[in-house]
Design a protein that fits this description.
It is built from twelve helices and four strands; from the N terminus they run H-H-H-E-H-E-E-E-H-H-H-H-H-H-H-H. With 293 residues, it is mainly alpha-helical. A four-stranded mixed beta sheet has the order 1-2-4-3, with helices on both faces. The longest helix has 42 residues.
């Protein structure tokens, strides 16, 4: 199976990115109005974006309590990732392990040259060799697609909008700014709320598209879509056996996980991932296509 472009999926991602771009141009215009000039707005936004972009890998690992491990500690895990990286035509990423009962994995890093693939001890105990390869290949596909960088940039201004909505009084309060006074703060909060809501929907759509693309990439790397489908089923059922406290502690990392931690109807609507059942159906369809090719 060759690495082929899914033009339908790519088109939906491009449209979503275009809509986000238009939305953020409007938002930057609002920031410029609020801060009186574009330079002040950039001085406010720029450093925060730089920190998030260049240190996203360290922040993600710290949030999960994951630590980088060398080959002497996890020789089989390193050997598997090394082999899959060669098959994906990628430099071997660093490897990290989190001591957690939650069976999951994620990739982080702004580019293939500084990527990290992390797994939990729970997933190492849950999956067999082929299934683990499928999951690791999925994470390497994220690295190849530069998904961490894309989602970091796509979600950054949404984060700023949310901060303004939540802490709007910090950005001026009742003080007079350019003659606009408290009214300017109200306008900024109102526009930020709209930007955050719309971007929330668009970013989740983009994230779901990229998960489908990573699933397909994993199938290409391993040649065994069924192994990843089996892994997704095991991980999904394994989540139900994990204590609720462990689930709550790691829920903030949903966007990075192979399968997100979610709860209830709202959790499903707000999920950064497509329904597991749909992902499995697509992988099984790929398996049938490969068998009849």
């Amino acid at each position: 199976m060759q690495w082929q472009t899914d033009w339908g999926l790519r088109g939906r991602m491009a449209l979503t990115m275009l809509l986000l771009g238009v939305l953020y141009v409007v938002f930057l215009g609002m920031l410029t109005f609020y801060f009186d000039n574009m330079l002040t707005a950039l001085l406010f936004v720029g450093p925060m974006l730089a920190i998030q972009y260049f240190f996203s890998d360290k922040l993600a690992l710290r949030s999960m309590g994951a630590k980088k491990v060398d080959e002497s500690e996890y020789p089989e895990l390193h050997a598997t990732i090394s082999r899959l990286s060669q098959q994906a035509d990628l430099p071997k990423p660093d490897v990290a392990v989190a001591d957690s009962k939650v069976p999951n994995a994620f990739a982080t890093g702004r580019s293939p040259d500084n990527a990290v693939v992390a797994v939990t001890t729970g997933i190492l105990r849950t999956l067999d060799e082929d299934e683990l390869e499928g999951v690791l290949a999925h994470e390497l596909a994220h690295v190849k697609h530069r998904d961490v960088a894309v989602m970091t940039i796509a979600s950054f201004l949404s984060t700023i909008a949310f901060m303004i909505v939540r802490w709007g009084w910090l950005f001026g309060g009742g003080r007079n700014r350019g003659g606009r006074g408290g009214g300017g703060v109200i306008v900024a909060i109102g526009v930020s709320l709209v930007v955050w809501i719309v971007s929330f929907v668009l970013i989740r759509a983009l994230s779901r598209y990229r998960e489908y693309a990573a699933d397909r990439g994993a199938a290409v790397i391993t040649g065994r879509p069924g192994a990843l489908a089996s892994a997704l089923m095991k991980i999904s059922s394994g989540m139900e056996k994990v204590p609720k406290q462990d689930m709550r502690d790691q829920a903030e990392m949903n966007a990075f996980f192979i399968i997100p931690i979610r709860s209830g109807f709202v959790g499903r609507i707000a999920s950064t991932h497509p329904p597991t059942e749909k992902r499995i159906d697509r992988l099984q369809q790929l398996e049938r296509e490969m068998e009849t090719a």
